[in-house]
Amino acid sequence: MSALQRVTQWQTFARTWHLFDARWQNPFECSSLIAKHLQGRHKPIYHPLNDCGDMVVAINTRHIALASDEWIKRVYFHHTGYPGGATWTLAWELHDKDPTMILKKAVYSAIKNNLQRRTTMQRLFLYPDDKIPDDILANITNQIRSPRPVPTPLPDPASEEFQSFPRIAPFPEDYVLK
Question: Which UniProt keywords apply (predicted)?
Answer without folding.
Answer: Ribonucleoprotein, Ribosomal protein
